[in-house]
């Protein structure tokens, strides 16, 4: 029952049916707590954080991800630690708390380096965006290249909207405006990233706020 409720909740969240997503996540949490399935409690709590994130309720999402992370550490659940740290980093990024976001991403990086190459690459992308916000252009470029290299090693030649937009940010920060415009044009040929909710919402062209 628990895996089914998680799948329903994730699917509803992806399609923007937040009421159904929340209902499934809460039912999953209730069932997991009733049988003391603490790993599932952490998973359901993470899902509730994702649902709050999708609705841009960042304070509630932060509370839920912090709760999930604390429980995952207690259980020594490496995979869940990685996801909770990464999602919490996303919220801190949204709240412009870049140093804290970077620390969360570093923790996720250490976990995913050993167990999940695709997420390992995704965390390098996120760190690249933090560095963009800090106007550390060269370091941002290095992290984005690391992500691209990892993805190419795993899946063959590829770029995506997120990476291209990041490289455009680096080029703009370095004053290479024509190259930035070229990269943004290429990024816009990709379809919207439905599941990566914060990528499009949180990238801004003004880095000096």
How many beta strands in the DSSP annotation?
A: 0
Shape: elongated
The proportion of strand residues reads under 5%
The string of secondary-structure elements, in order, is: HHHHHHHHHHH
Number of helices: 11
Largest sheet: none
Helicity range: over 70%
Low-confidence stretches: 194-200, 203-209
Cα(first) to Cα(last) distance is: 47 Å
Query: How would you classify the helix and strand content by structural class?
Result: mainly alpha
Tell me the Rg in angstroms: 18 Å
- The overall average pLDDT, rounded, is 85
Characterise this structure.
There is one protein chain. This protein has 209 residues and is mainly α. The N and C termini lie far apart (47 Å). The chain has helices at 2-14, 18-34, 38-54, 58-75, 78-94, 98-115, 117-133, 137-155, 161-173, 177-187, 197-202. The chain is elongated, with a radius of gyration of 18 Å.
Q: What's the arrangement of secondary structure elements?
A:
Layout: H1 2-14, H2 18-34, H3 38-54, H4 58-75, H5 78-94, H6 98-115, H7 117-133, H8 137-155, H9 161-173, H10 177-187, H11 197-202
Notable features of this structure?
209 residues, mainly alpha, elongated, single chain
Would you kindly provide a brief summary of this structure?
This protein has helices spanning 2-14, 18-34, 38-54, 58-75, 78-94, 98-115, 117-133, 137-155, 161-173, 177-187, 197-202. It has 209 residues and is mainly alpha-helical.
